Amino acid sequence: MLAPIMSTPSCPSPSEMSCPTPTPIRPLAIVSALHQELAALLARGHEADFERQRHAGRDFLVGQLHGVPVVLVLCGIGKVAAATTATLLAERFGVGALVFTGVAGGLGDGVKVGDLVLADTLLQHDMDASPLFPRFEVPLTGRSRFPADAALTQALATACEAVLALPQPFGAAAEALGVSRPALHRGLIVSGDRFVGAASECAALRQALPDALAVEMEGAALAQACHDLGLPFAVLRSISDRADDSAHVDFMRFIDEVASRASAAIVDGWLSAR
After folding, report:
1. Which of 108, 137, 185, 219 has its CA 20 to 30 A from that of 238?
2. Long-range CB contacts (< 8 A, 24+ apart) of 171-176?
3. Segment (H or E) for 189
4. Catalytic residue among 115, 120, 137, 241
5. Percentages helix, strand, coil for the chain, rounded to the nearest 5?
């Protein structure tokens, strides 16, 4: 495990007791679903100043942003990749909290391309061990929905609102892609090991989970792993398309010019306020 950075309080005078043990500062994990997002974050620091450590096929970048100890990593796609990454961050690097950013398809009414969705809870929409357990319930846990850390999510919401208040929050490129007046939503994000792009599948998800705002492939598995590990976490998604394909943009251009910049600006604001 990575040795924690130590914060050493001032020592007392010789007449006092011995100097107290330094308090370890646990690094924060910032997990990106896409390479472009990780690159945008590194561009805000100095990549050469990050120590690269490779574990389980992943490059973990250890360093600081805004003076805050961080571990940056590219997660990979799918639920197993997300759970593995969260476990490595907790067990090998001893992180104190985890923030996961990426893109998702919009499901909820009023959730449009370019909007931001912060998870209050997450659920695996492809979990079905019925009739032994209710549909969506993770066996032997007694729950289907895993809550994100309230304080961490609120801090990210504040950073999101500050970015969205700017005249061009995601730059001129976003407007060129038809992204205008992006909004922040909070609520349920659902995850599964399948790409959801058909109108019929979206309709089925909305019928089964009418409060779902967005669908993706990692967040709920990461949430379950963090719950088991006792690790505070938050999940932030940029909406790249409507999951039923009723509205879409050039995906790679959206990632390069909108989503990666948005997540970097929000994480930057969150860290600078700590």
Report:
1. 137
2. 171/257, 171/258, 171/261, 173/253, 173/257, 173/258, 173/261, 174/114, 174/257, 174/258
3. strand 184-191
4. 241
5. 30, 30, 40
Catalytic residue chosen out of the listed positions 37, 115, 120, 218: 37
CA-wise closest residue to 147 among 108, 107, 119: 119
Q: Indicate if 241 belongs to the active site.
A: yes
Does residue 51 carry a catalytic annotation?
Answer: no
What's the pLDDT score for residue 2? 47
Average pLDDT score over residue span 215-220: 95
**For the chain, which domains are there?**
24-272 (3.40.50.1580)
pTM, two decimals, is: 0.88
CB atoms within 10 A of CB 10: 6
Contact 96, 68 (CB under 8 A): no
